[in-house]
Amino acid sequence: MSAKKSGLGYIDLFLLHSPYGGKEARLESWRAVEDAIEAGEVKTGGVSNYGVKHLKELMASKPRVLPAVNQVEVHPFNTRTEITSFCQENNIVVEAYAPLVRALRMKHPTIVSLAEKYSCTPAQLLVRWSLQHGYVPLPKSVNKERIVANAAIGGFEIGQEDMSKMDGLDE
Fold first, then answer.
1. pLDDT averaged over the chain?
2. What is the pLDDT of residues 37-74, one digit of tens each?
3. Are the CB atoms for 127 and 100 separated by under 8 Å?
4. How confident is the model at residue 170 (pLDDT cuts 50, 70, 90)?
5. Over the range 144-167, which residues count as b (16 or more CB within 10 Å of their CB) and which as e?
6. SS3 string of 73-133?
7. Residues sharing a CB contact under 8 Å with residue 65, sequence separation 6 or more, in sequence order
8. What is the C-alpha separation between 67 and 118, in angstroms, rounded?
9. Which of 65, 71, 131, 144 is the 20 to 30 A CA-CA neighbour of 122?
10. CA 77 – CA 47 distance, rounded (Å)
11. Which pLDDT tens digit goes with each residue over 67-110?
């Protein structure tokens, strides 16, 4: 198990990275996660890039433990409403990777305009959008100043009209 190899006593969150391999492989992999949780090697299990079909399939198998997290790419340009709604309705935390849109949309007119309105950076606006939707954003940066700035989003809230405007950027 990874916990032993890493020298850690346990792993806080273990994610199955993708739903590839077919139904039996997915279910067998999830049973291995459940076994690791039962053995105390893993505290929490989750999945990554699972769609509604994959989650329903897993839930129908009557697992001992349901996934606590589904890590999927979510941001205003890729809102993934079907999967995010399903997760939230089933108490599965949406962990939003690439919430900063891989820095490809920092100069989008709507993002720039709203960042100016809320006196924040475009990245802070995008992180705040994720949080206000109830997601756990995972902004990526190797720059210390940006990492600190990306976390400093407590001083404002995006108004509902502006949230709707950002939601409307979905492609």
1. 94
2. 999 999 999 999 999 999 999 999 999 999 999 999 99
3. yes
4. very high
5. eebeebbeebeeeebeeebbeebe
6. ECECCECCHHHHHHHHHCCCEEEEECCCHHHCCCCCHHHHHHHHHCCCCHHHHHHHHHHHC
7. 33, 34, 37, 45
8. 35
9. 71
10. 22
11. 999 999 999 999 999 999 999 999 999 999 999 998 888 999 99
Element (H, E) at 144: helix 144-151
pTM of the model: 0.91
Which has the closest alpha carbon to 16: 43, 37, 58, 46?
A: 46
Q: What angle do CA 43, 83, 91 make, to 5 degrees?
A: 40
Q: How many residues does the chain have?
A: 171
What pLDDT score was predicted for residue 2? 62
pLDDT at 35 over 90: yes
Distance of alpha carbon 103 from alpha carbon 154, whole angstroms: 21
